[in-house]
Design brief:
Layout (H helix, E strand, L loop, with lengths): L1 H12 L17 E6 L3 H6 L9 E6 L27 E5 L3 E3 L2 E3 L2 E9 L3 E7 L15 E25 L3 E19 L2
Antiparallel strand pairs: 1-2, 2-3, 3-6, 4-5, 4-9, 6-7, 7-8, 8-9
Length: 188
Amino acid sequence: MNRVFVIFTCLLLSLPTWAQQKPTELDKSPMDMSYWPDSYPLLKMNGKIKDLPVARIIYSRPQKNNRTIFNGIVKYGEMWRLGANEATEIEFFKNVKIAGKIVPKGRYTLYCIPEADKWTLVFNKDNYSWGNYTYDIRKDVLRTTIPIEKLSNPIENFTMYFEDGKNSANLIMEWDDVKATLPITIAL
């Protein structure tokens, strides 16, 4: 039995390099994830929380790279995937309320239609989309418009994070000289 194991191991180690999978290159817009509560990963690792988070968002983080972002590479009035690569996904592990409407727990694709003074955020049930190429308005769950504010110090990498409150959070989205804030509350 040991002899068979040794022979098998030697054969595996002698496979030509063409049989090995080539590693992918480093993505210029790396994928990131944020949680509500924002400290959820640490609390979970340290055994201080047993429940699921309220929400998590998965998105890619493009860089400004000296480009004009808003009304440049991201056109005003056009659907944007709210990041890069795959469309941004947000998952609610509890029912939440956004703009006075209940959004049932579940996973949604989150899109944005930016304007100079506001963003329209679109929660859509068509998950696992690449960009917004297959966007289907019939699968919209919620649309809400939020104001934006101008930042004095530009943000190089697109960033999304939750700012915790009591039974609520703000989903903060920042890039270039723009900050957008989406208030979310737990539906009690």
